[in-house]
């Protein structure tokens, strides 16, 4: 009998993390991004109680990872080949300890396609000794969030975008997710964050944190570029039910507010890109005040895990954060 994708808070056998490796992609942000990734890895292996598998590409990245992670128990460095570190999207989605699903990846609608993108899912599954089920449609793991009982969150902007699977309607997507991941109910949100090259991945917008409980941001400051997007998502979630027919309990979490790149453009910073480990929840933070409030809000929904805020500004220059660079193996 098939089962839905386990919730992220279910026990893990391991946590995969991509380590920033390609100087030509990260340029001046490579070393700072490596420091931020190393801090995440150490937190996962320490208070997070995870066995962390760190995938690195190339000798220079291997040397940097060994230096930053020297002596950290619970960490295995795995040399590999990947386009970039966004393993949530290019890696497999694990269904169980011995089974995973892979999908076609087209560089988030043709924006960024790099050597290794199409092979990293198979490499991770092989290392995990998991059977890999291949599915012939485009899907990134960050486009979905799972409650472990067959309820899936996603956005119309991403999943129904013609740059992924042209002509898809909601019914087509629901049929594909039911067949590949045993999704029983899809909750459709609308737009994702402004200037998000993923076309609105839901792991920047709303996340399940417990059965029947979902978190979504609330705007911070009058110049928050995503205030209307957050409120529109919250309105859908407030009237939604899960696959068991339960109304969802919605918890609003302060957003980071407006975070800008060096050119003054708003970038898709989100506290929703947190990562749930066996012992902790690691939250990306960008600004002191909203970051501290976001950690406190998430502590209220994760009473049995330590909630830790860690800087993620350098990683964000590459387009994502902690959830984007990771993928869990269920126990």
Primary descriptors:
331 residues; 4-stranded mixed β-sheet; 3-stranded mixed β-sheet; L-arginine/glycine Amidinotransferase, Chain A; alpha/beta; 11 helices
Description of the molecule:
Helices cover 27% and strands 25% of the residues. The protein is of the alpha/beta class and 331 residues long. The strands form five sheets. Strands 3-2-1-16 form a four-stranded mixed sheet. It has a three-stranded mixed sheet with strand order 4-5-6, sandwiched between helices. A three-stranded mixed sheet has the order 7-8-9, sandwiched between helices.
- Count of separate DSSP helical elements: 11
Q: Helix proportion of residues, in percent? A: 25-40%
Strand content: 15-25%
SSE class: alpha/beta
Question: What is the strand arrangement across the widest sheet?
Answer: 3-2-1-16
Order of helical and strand elements: EHHEHEHEEHHEEEHHEEEHEEEHEHE
CATH topology (fold) name: L-arginine/glycine Amidinotransferase, Chain A
Question: Major sheet, described briefly?
Answer: 4 strands, mixed
What general outline do the C-alpha atoms trace? globular
Low-confidence stretches: none
What is the CATH architecture term? 5-stranded Propeller
Mean pLDDT: 97
CATH superfamily: L-arginine/glycine Amidinotransferase, Chain A
Query: Compute the gyration radius: what is it?
Result: 18 Å
Q: How many domain units? A: 1
Give the C-level CATH assignment: Alpha Beta
For the terminal residues, how far apart are their CA atoms?
Answer: 18 Å
Number of strands: 16
